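Per your request, structure below.
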């Protein structure tokens, strides 16, 4: 058996794709980069015997992901209700390009995705909870946590956070152009890639912002 490098996650039955295995990556730096550039994750779990998938914000601190919600949200209640925690599957995806082939069958997308399997646990330590909330804020806009009022006791009491360790993880990436069949090369249809990338507009100050407060450099840099 080949040992897994220290800078990679160990593949498991759940993290090895059944198709296009050459696109899978277990490199930690690659996984972290894909996670850190995503704003929204999708959290999947089973509720009352049926699958549920919720879009939500998240933040990463080292090898741990933090997901937050209200204290009454069902996944957070389930994660804290029993010692075993809540089995979950968390995913993020970036679409980088629309891949248009000569045949409908070979149309695709260029993408970067991460899938995390594991057991989520509710964070009960106040210090860790504050660290998690700072990570969530900074994940959206780096530097913002230090430039805003931290949660007070009432807000902390109304907020719950779950922790998911990065243990069973894989990335999957597609790049490049269409994979047209040789017999289709002479067909009179355009073939290629339409790049897709996020775009930021100019910051819009709140209508009630006090005069003289400038736009912070870390926001303008977006």
């Amino acid at each position: 058996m080949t040992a897994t490098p220290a800078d990679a996650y160990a593949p498991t039955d759940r993290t090895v794709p059944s198709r296009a295995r050459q696109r899978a990556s277990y490199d930690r730096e690659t996984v972290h980069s894909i996670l850190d550039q995503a704003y929204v994750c999708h959290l999947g779990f089973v509720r009352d015997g049926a699958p549920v998938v919720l879009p939500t914000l998240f933040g990463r601190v080292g090898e741990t992901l933090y997901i937050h919600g209200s204290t009454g949200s069902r996944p957070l209640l389930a994660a804290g209700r029993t010692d075993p925690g809540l089995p979950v599957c968390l995913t993020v995806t970036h679409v980088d390009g629309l891949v248009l082939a000569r045949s409908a069958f070979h149309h695709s997308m260029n993408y970067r995705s991460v899938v995390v399997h594991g057991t989520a646990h509710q964070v009960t330590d106040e210090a860790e909870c504050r660290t998690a909330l700072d990570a969530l804020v900074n994940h959206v806009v780096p530097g913002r946590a230090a430039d805003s009022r931290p949660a007070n006791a009432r807000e902390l009491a109304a907020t719950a956070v779950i922790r998911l360790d990065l243990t069973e993880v894989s990335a999957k990436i597609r790049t490049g152009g269409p994979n047209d069949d040789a017999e289709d090369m002479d067909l009179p249809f355009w073939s290629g890639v339409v790049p897709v990338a996020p775009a930021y507009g100019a910051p819009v100050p709140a209508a009630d912002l006090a005069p003289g407060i400038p736009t912070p450099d870390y926001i303008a840099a977006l």
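The helical segments are 28-36, 74-81, 126-140, 153-157, 217-220.

Regards,
D.
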